[in-house]
Structure formats: structure tokens, C-alpha cells
Design brief:
Helix content is 14%, strand content 34%. With 405 residues, it is of the alpha+beta class. The longest helix has 34 residues. The mean pLDDT is 92.
């Protein structure tokens, strides 16, 4: 018997206790992945070889292997808490050094960048002012708090039913927006100039013998003396006038805006049935400026800003990085890893693409440590340590016997 086996066993058991203790200590660390000590036996080298009669000289810790299994997902109230459900790591920029993490607890710094508690910036695909993503090299993501620029109205879509039973209105007296006897029905829709100022575009429908004349007014002021359109229908009440109509030049009522600005009107779907006048839909494509009211994250990583004008805009997209051998990553502390030669190169892409997982906003991934199992492992490691100490004690007693002879 040799002391070598017992000493190696003590070292291995001590290392195993270290691993178990680290797992237990991080049982509440968001995104933590538990480790497991992997053991290997030891044999002395022999030039002649001893075949099956060779006795081992102990044990060693061959590897401390991290277990990248999925942790439970817990909901939170922070929209910047992000959990990964599936494979992949968040890609972080730490002053030019790229690191990877599973911990999705993020916040905004004073410049609007999305950062982790240690200041590393979350990277992804950035978006331009039009919301188009730049899907080249990932870059640090930021949440812009600038106002969303207004969009001038260029088109109005109206789907109506004009009552075929309405009486025909004679050409005289001439149409007058102040005289309701000179028109049959009317609609109004809010439109926006180039600066985002709102004004009201009214349209008046006058039943004639040959069809319907349509007049326009802007903020109560008639636009031109003549109708801008004449709507005709077949005997089934289906619109026969080609759409869209030629644009109306609408005067801007606020100074500094484009004046006038053309608006195309499209009555596609409008009917002339024997039923009361109805407005089935009436919408336009412009909007005023808006301030950022909040943002949301979709499962594919798209960061969508919500604005006070009711609009949304793409602000960026979070990316994930996958590795052929995650166990080859080097832990750096602060819940981060770096790639190594054994991990393989990172495969960066959008969430929910390839083998990458999906994201869940307002949630975090808990540690995957099974505390009950780790306490049992602790008892086993303790017994292993005690048993190896006994082999050393037995060897000591044998040597003492030899000395006494």
C-alpha cells in the first residue's frame, strides 16, 4: 500500500467539495450554470508493461465541466430583464473585448446603451431612422429617446355606402358647405402636414342624376369651387370610377409647413346600395411627432419603441451567439465567459434562428443548480474524503507495525 492513492483521493474529494460549494453559493445567481467535477484514474508509466496486474496510483480531477442545461424562467417587472429559452448567449462588448453571458439582467446607462451590472454593453443589429436593421457586424445597442419625426399625409382611404335612395340634388343652388341642403352626406378625417400639425379634411357627397359629386374642405374652408371627383356605380351598386383619384392639393394651415401638400383619395370598396349612408372605414397614412413612451422586446430580439402618437418603430435587434462546444468557454466571473480554441468560433444570429433559442422580456433565467441534489453531493464528497483519510491512517498503522518488528 502507498500513501499516493489516499493523498490523491483527498485532493480529488477536496476539489469536489469546492465545486459543490461553488454551486451552492450560486444557487440564486441569475443565469448561473452549475459545474461538475469529472474524475480520472491514475497509473504509473511502465516501460515493460504489467498488463492486468498493474495497480493504480490514485485519482485526479480531469475536468470541471459546466452543465449548460436550461434554468427555470421567472417573470419580473423590468422590460430590460431578458431570459433566453434555449441555446445561445448574449453577446457583450466590454470596451472592445467581446464576452458572453446568460444573465439577462440589463439596464440603461446615461447614454442610453443597454448594459449589464458591470457596465458591458449588449450588442445586436442597430436600426436607422427608418427602422431598417443593419444585419452586418453586431454593435452596442442603445435606446434613442429622440422624438419620432412626423409623417405627412399622402393618402386617404374611405370605404362608404352611399344610399341609392337619396334624393337627387339639383345643380342650383351651388354647393355651399354652410348650407346642408346643398349636399347629401359628409365625412371628416384628421390629416397631418409636413411638420406634424393636424388639420381636418372634410369631404361632402352630393347625389346627382349621373352619380355623386365629391367636394373637399380644409378646416372648414372649401378647396376649389368644383368637385374633385364624380363617383359612378353600376346597376349592382359597385363602384366603377377608377381609383385612386388624382391628388387634392390641400392648403397647410400652419406656417412653415409644405404648402399645399397633395393627398390622394381612394374610395375602393365604396358601394351604392339601398341602405342608409355608412362609413365602413376612413383612415389616412400620416401622423404627428411622438415621444418615446416605452419599448418592448419580441421573442426574436426585435426592440420595438412605443410613442405617444400611437406609432411604433424598430430600435434594434438583440443577437445571440452559439458555440459548438460551450464547455470550452472560459469563465471570467461576473456571469461572463470568453471564447477559447476548444469552444469553437461563435455563430452569431437572430434569436429563434438556426439552433439559437428565443427571448422572453420581463423575465430572467434562474440558476440551474438543484440545491437538494447538491446537498446530497456534498455528503457524498464528505464521505469520499473521510474514506481516503482512512486509507492513509491504515498505511500509517502498517508502517508503525514494521518499525516495531
Amino acid at each position: 500500500m502507498s500513501f499516493q492513492q489516499g493523498l490523491s483521493g483527498l485532493n480529488a474529494a477536496s476539489k469536489n467539495l469546492d465545486v459543490v460549494g461553488n454551486n451552492v453559493a450560486n444557487a440564486s445567481t441569475v443565469g448561473f450554470k452549475q459545474s461538475q467535477a469529472v474524475f480520472a484514474d491514475l497509473y504509473a508509466n511502465s516501460l515493460s508493461g504489467s498488463g492486468g496486474s498493474q495497480v493504480g496510483i490514485g485519482v485526479k480531477v480531469a475536468q470541471v465541466s459546466q452543465q449548460f442545461t436550461q434554468g427555470n424562467i421567472t417573470s419580473t417587472s423590468n422590460p430590460l430583464d431578458i431570459a433566453i429559452n434555449g441555446n445561445g448567449f448574449f453577446r457583450m462588448d466590454n470596451g472592445g473585448e467581446v464576452t458572453y453571458q446568460r444573465n439577462g439582467q440589463f439596464q440603461l446607462d446615461k447614454l442610453g446603451f443597454i448594459v449589464n451590472p458591470s457596465g458591458s454593453k449588449l450588442t445586436g443589429y442597430t436600426a436607422n431612422a427608418s427602422g431598417v436593421l443593419s444585419t452586418g457586424a453586431p454593435a452596442p445597442l442603445s435606446i434613442s429617446t429622440s422624438d419620432l419625426a412626423p409623417l405627412i399625409t399622402s393618402e386617404v382611404n374611405a370605404v362608404l355606402n352611399l344610399d341609392s335612395g337619396s334624393p337627387v340634388i339639383p345643380a342650383l343652388p351651388a354647393f355651399n358647405i354652410a348650407d346642408p341642403t346643398t349636399f347629401t352626406n359628409s365625412t371628416a378625417v384628421t390629416v397631418y402636414d409636413s411638420l406634424g400639425n393636424d388639420q381636418t379634411l372634410q369631404m361632402f357627397y352630393v347625389k346627382r342624376a349621373a352619380g355623386w359629386d365629391v367636394y373637399a374642405a380644409n378646416d372648414g374652408v372649401q378647396i376649389g369651387a368644383a368637385p374633385f371627383a364624380n363617383l359612378t356605380f353600376n346597376t349592382s351598386g359597385v363602384l366603377t370610377t377608377a381609383m385612386p383619384l388624382a391628388p387634392i392639393n390641400v392648403p397647410a394651415t400652419a406656417p412653415g409647413a409644405t404648402n399645399p401638400f397633395p393627398i390622394a383619395v381612394d374610395f375602393t370598396g365604396t358601394t351604392q346600395f339601398g341602405a342608409n349612408f355608412s362609413v365602413n372605414s376612413l383612415d389616412q397614412d400620416g401622423f404627428t411627432s411622438g415621444r418615446l413612451a416605452g419599448f418592448d422586446l419580441s421573442s426574436d430580439g426585435i426592440v420595438l419603441g412605443r410613442y405617444t402618437n400611437g406609432q411604433t418603430a424598430v430600435l434594434g435587434q438583440v443577437v445571440l451567439a452559439g458555440f459548438a462546444n460551450p464547455n470550452g468557454l472560459q469563465p471570467m466571473g461576473n456571469n461572463q465567459w470568453v471564447e477559447t480554441a476548444t469552444s469553437g468560433v461563435p455563430l452569431v444570429g437572430a434569436p429563434d434562428s438556426g439552433s439559437l433559442g428565443v427571448l422572453q422580456s420581463r423575465a430572467v433565467e434562474d440558476s440551474n443548480v438543484d440545491l437538494t441534489a447538491e446537498l446530497v453531493n456534498m455528503i457524498t464528497a464528505q464521505r469520499m474524503y473521510q474514506a481516503n483519510a482512512q486509507t492513509i491512517q491504515a498505511q500509517d498503522e502498517i508502517l508503525q507495525t514494521l518499525v516495531n518488528l
